[in-house]
Design goal:
It is a single chain. The protein is an alpha/beta fold and about 450 residues long. It has 17 helices and 15 strands. Strand 14 and strand 15 form a beta hairpin. Helix 11 packs across helix 12. The longest helix is centred in the middle third of the chain and has 24 residues. About 0% of the residues have low confidence. The structure holds beta-D-fucopyranose (FCB).
Length: about 450
């Protein structure tokens, strides 16, 4: 089947600093929250399958990896700046070695014709930020703005696509509560405190707006947005109106508490009606006053979920996946399902609810488990199932474009095998396979396929 995409469509692949960079204590880097908690025995269960200490060692291999990307026609590489590498000990002292490293990486990408797309924050808060109260503290807003300004000042000439934050539903909210309020935090600092969870959410939204405002105040000339992970919550029973409503409420609760403020300058009703008691006073007015529109919204899509009405908590009632729904084979990491139609539904919903100017699919990908007896060795290099996965999601994108919705890019997660929170380096998403002992890189068949696809479509 032939696809039709604009010639300047951003065909990319993504990753984050702490998931591939390694070099956790080199180059003047300070401790990230993961480096810190992974070394505390009380938190062992979150790190028993591994720490992000050296993983793919991108820090020492980035030129080689960029060459592999260029050989396969990649148009854009999405990556993040490690805040604890740039500011190892506190907000006042910048690490020049880190400035040089990222400048060289971004220059090399540009030289090879690959557009850098940079997240300011993808899950690795410096431990010194957490020590000062993390995102639950009001000071976070100033600290984040300072970090953002330093990034624009040092890298803004080379980077023209910026995102303030990646999936704060996980990294920020889950520091203090499970994502659906079913228990305590699953992410550093692993606390159990709803007031902190919602306060951190509000502070992250304000920090995002400040960072967007700062970008414009500094006269930067690229695009800036944020990356959220909205996905459909299908009704458990399609014939039950209450399940349908529960699904809508779950969307607003999970993704809407970011998308509402970021795209419309207000929190959704479900937050106002059910969670105001955990929010700081005057939060809705404060968001309206701070609102700063974005140039695009990024959205990561992996799998849908299901919602079922419950009389106790209609607004947070995820249901187990019913057998009947048309979910196909799954990725192997945390039971991620394979349902490309969910990408179509997600984009339609984003467009209908928030009317963003531009949408970029910033992550989409499929995992494969490594052999537990031989975890240094990458999973299958001839990964036809990943090719099927990518093809079917790209087909959904082409249908979305036919509807006239302005989607301008698609990034595969991940450029290479990654460290994943909770499961170490055991599940591969990579277009490039990594041998963790030798650090040998082997492009998978999916990357060769993607390279040919990009060539034919640009
Ligand atoms: C997303 C994250 C990314 C990676 C993938 C598998 O939620 O943004 O860092 O862990 O999932």
């Amino acid at each position: 089947m032939a696809f039709s995409f604009p010639k300047d469509f951003l065909w990319g692949a993504a990753c984050s600093a702490y998931q591939i960079e390694g070099a956790w204590n080199e180059g003047g880097k300070g401790l990230s929250c993961h480096d810190y908690y992974a070394r505390l025995p009380e938190y062992e269960k979150f790190y028993e399958l591994g720490r992000p200490d050296d993983c793919a060692d991108f820090y020492h291999h980035y030129r080689e990896d960029i060459d592999i990307m260029a050989e396969r026609n990649l148009k854009s590489f999405r990556f993040s700046i490690a805040w604890p590498r740039l500011f190892p000990n506190g907000p006042d002292e910048i690490n020049q070695e880190c400035v040089d490293y990222y400048n060289d990486m971004f220059s090399y990408l540009n030289e090879k014709g690959i557009i850098p797309f940079v997240d300011l924050f993808h899950w690795d808060l410096p431990q010194w930020v957490l020590d000062r109260g993390g995102a639950a503290s009001r000071e976070f807003i100033d600290l984040f703005e300072g970090f953002a300004r330093a990034c624009y000042a040092n890298f803004g000439d080379k980077v023209k696509y910026w995102s303030t934050t990646n999936e704060p539903s996980v990294s920020i909210f889950c520091g203090y509560a499970d994502w659906n309020l079913n228990g305590g935090g699953m992410f550093p600092p692993y606390e159990d405190d709803r007031t902190k969870a919602f306060t951190a959410c509000h502070n992250m939204n304000l920090a995002h707006m400040r960072a967007v405002k700062a970008y414009r105040e500094m006269g930067q000339d690229g695009k800036i947005g944020a990356v959220i992970d909205a996905f459909p919550f299908y009704p458990y029973n399609f014939n039950d109106k209450r399940d349908m409503e529960a699904g809508e409420q779950m969307w607003d609760f999970y993704a809407g508490k970011w998308l509402g403020p970021i795209l419309l300058g207000k929190y959704p009703d479900v937050i106002v009606e059910h969670f105001s008691q955990y929010m700081p006073e005057g939060y809705q007015e404060e968001i309206a006053a701070a609102y700063e529109p974005v140039d695009y919204i990024g959205n990561n899509y992996y799998a849908p979920r299901y919602a079922k009405y419950s009389p106790e908590a209609p607004y947070y009632s995820p249901a187990p996946d019913p057998e009947l729904v048309p979910v196909k084979e799954g990725g192997e990491f945390v039971g991620m399902k394979y349902y490309p139609e969910g990408l179509f539904d997600t984009i339609r919903m984003l467009d209908k609810k928030y009317h963003p100017k531009e949408i970029i699919i910033t992550e989409n990908g499929m995992s494969a488990a490594r052999d537990p007896k031989n975890p240094a060795v990458p999973s299958k290099i001839n990964d036809e199932n990943r090719i099927r996965y990518m093809r079917s999601h790209i087909m959904m994108l082409s249908r979305i474009l036919e509807q006239g919705i302005n989607v301008t890019g698609y990034y595969v997660w991940a450029i290479e095998d990654t460290y994943e929170h909770g499961s170490g380096c055991r599940y591969d998403y990579g277009l490039i396979g990594i041998n963790y002992d030798t650090k040998e890189r082997t492009p998978r068949d999916s990357f060769n396929w993607y390279g040919e696809f990009i060539k034919a479509n640009t």
